[in-house]
């Protein structure tokens, strides 16, 4: 039985990569659904799938996050994971789709939930912006902020896995990209530019470009509606499966769910601190436990 993947808004549901990729359940905002109905809907998902992983962007309204915690508390269920994503909205949608892909594999719900932190390292999420004057989620120098007020200025900003900012112009180098094959998803806002397709995709050796509607939260996240958001990602389920399979699995000491990395995806409990250093073997084990499950 696949693990159910849920999201907090419909624009976080990208089209499936193939016929096997399941859809995601969309949880209505608190203002559009009574608490009792939200509890009943999530109970139905638990009854049907056994476990539910809710992908929750860090930019989600406080009321939505409080609703999720309230529903989980009222259900008194340890089978609901709240996975908070620091990625921009389009990157979060990509992450949710990758978890949907993995949900039908031979992974336990705990491994799928904790895999979100691993997969986020392999999503190159950014945007072309007409201004960085109000951008506060990516480090921006004072000089770039001042240039952000100049008419016609455009910037390529990478939010993760390593924040980068480049002012576009003649001879400008694109941000450093992935060293592995990817596909690019882009969502167009009010900015008129083909730079992600004409300049970024060839430089990053992107193997395909897909377009998606701009998530409603993107202008707020990036500080401007004059943008084109993009996210380069691993599209192949076989590659995602190999990536997750290559990481050592642990058992959460608190809820006993299986996990990869250094934190449980369901109860958020960290792995216990490794024992005191008694030799080279212990040091190697400590490094593995504290690596966060990231594959070199």
UniProtKB/TrEMBL annotation:
Residues 272-296 are annotated as: Disordered. This is Uncharacterized protein. It comes from Streptomyces lateritius. The lineage of its organism: Bacteria, Bacillati, Actinomycetota, Actinomycetes, Kitasatosporales.
